[in-house]
């Protein structure tokens, strides 16, 4: 795994992810991108995040969760854009841990496929194709990981559950 000091190429430019996606949904073999390309990708990430949340906030299933949890949308959109910038360009603005925040939300198993569905629409519509593929791989990995972490048990009917039994 790349350390914080490995986040830029020898040229000092941000690194973009190349075509190899690991089992963790991340791309590890990085190639340098120009400053101009990095700026375009950053703008696309911000637009993708805004588009996704525009859909999600109005979605019958996801809207109540997001609207009940997010007090300041401008701050939230910036944090999420910084997360994706870190994931796709290896920038260092995002320093958080998304999983603990999500464990506090009133999530249900059916939220995860819907989140992926809406995110895929936004990513494919707005991000450059290589970055869309990387973002989708990361999102799928996160959805699987979050599902396993939030719902580590099965209930008596075999459905995912937060608690045993």
Automatic annotation (TrEMBL):
InterPro entries: Globin-like_sf (IPR009050), Globin/Proto (IPR012292). Residues 1-23 are annotated as: Disordered. One of its GO terms (molecular function) is oxygen binding. Gene3D superfamilies: Globins. This is Globin family protein. It comes from Methylocella silvestris (strain DSM 15510 / CIP 108128 / LMG 27833 / NCIMB 13906 / BL2). The lineage of its organism: Bacteria, Pseudomonadati, Pseudomonadota, Alphaproteobacteria, Hyphomicrobiales.
């Amino acid at each position: 795994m790349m350390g914080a000091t490995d986040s830029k190429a020898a040229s000092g430019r941000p690194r973009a992810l190349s075509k190899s996606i690991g089992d963790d949904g991340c791309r590890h073999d990085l190639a340098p991108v120009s400053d101009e390309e990095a700026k375009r990708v950053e703008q696309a990430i911000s637009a993708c995040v805004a588009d996704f949340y525009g859909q999600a906030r109005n979605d019958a299933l996801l809207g109540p969760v997001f609207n009940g949890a997010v007090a300041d949308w401008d701050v939230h959109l910036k944090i999420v854009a910084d997360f994706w910038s870190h994931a796709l360009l290896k920038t260092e603005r995002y320093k958080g841990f998304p999983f603990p925040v999500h464990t506090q939300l009133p999530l249900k198993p059916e939220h995860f496929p819907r989140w992926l569905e809406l995110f895929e629409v936004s990513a494919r519509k707005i991000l450059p194709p290589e970055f869309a593929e990387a973002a989708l791989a990361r999102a799928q990995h996160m959805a699987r990981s979050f599902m396993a972490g939030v719902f580590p048990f099965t209930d008596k009917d075999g459905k995912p559950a937060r608690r045993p039994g």
